[in-house]
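**User:** You know discrete backbone vocabularies at least as well as I do. Would you mind producing a protein record, from residues through to fold? Write it directly below this note and I will take it from there.

**Assistant:**
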Amino acid sequence: MSDTKLIVGMVQQRCTEDREANLNKSLAGVREAAAKGARLVVLQELHTGVYFCQCEDTDRFDMAEPIPGPSTAAIGATAKELGIVIVASLFERRAPGLYHNTAVVFEKDGTIAGTYRKMHIPDDPGFYEKFYFTPGDLGFNPIRTSVGTLGVLVCWDQWYPEGARLMTLAGAELLIYPTAIGWDPRDTADEKGRQRDAWVTIQRAHAVANGIPVISVNRTGFEPDPSGADAGIDFWGTSFAAGPQGELLAQGSTDREEVLTVELDRRRSEDVRRIWPFLRDRRIDDYGDLIKRYRD
């Protein structure tokens, strides 16, 4: 990173079945963030539609699109117009019957700087993603842009320290997590609090362990289960930015659409790593068992 300061925008929104309206709302948020000085804007996971993975429905594959495709054309044009870098999240149709949950990074000239296909795919009540998404095959490789080298991961990836570490070891200067996560409305208030706190804590820990900032952007609003078999998901928003010591720099509400901006001091990663040299002290000679599923 050449400049010391970087303003990052985060667009937290509700989504409906109207794809065009969702995309227009995302791009309006991008414009608002850019007007506030953002040179990098991050959108939430699968921001052009509802979170369709609450149930298994083959018709939902019709929502997927190629990359490049219609959405990348619109987002790329906006990136070029505003002269900023944008991180988007799309349902990718790679080939007939082959689909990915894919983050796309657009350079300020509107071109695609790189893509990342979600590596960790959940399969839990309300989050039946294995039905829809093939696990990513592009590895944990950061994407170089004019605003820095971005370690882009997606949602469920955020629970795994291995992904954050591998991005860092490959030169990522910033970890970015487009996200769609929320509560079961039937959960108690205490349980909801524990879940959200765990979600924030694990990502702040990635910032601490790797000495780099983290940007996490989540959707908000209630979305019913289209099948009617479950209670739906109340997405908890709380989009946030954390610094290289895990310090919270900005955080959104749980229930409102918002465009957040945060100024990152990119010198801090160097300063923090000098006093907390975790990368220096790693015992890489004794970590071989990490590639095992479990040590029996």
The chain has five helices and 17 strands. The chain has one domain: 11-284. The two ends are 44 Å apart (CA to CA).
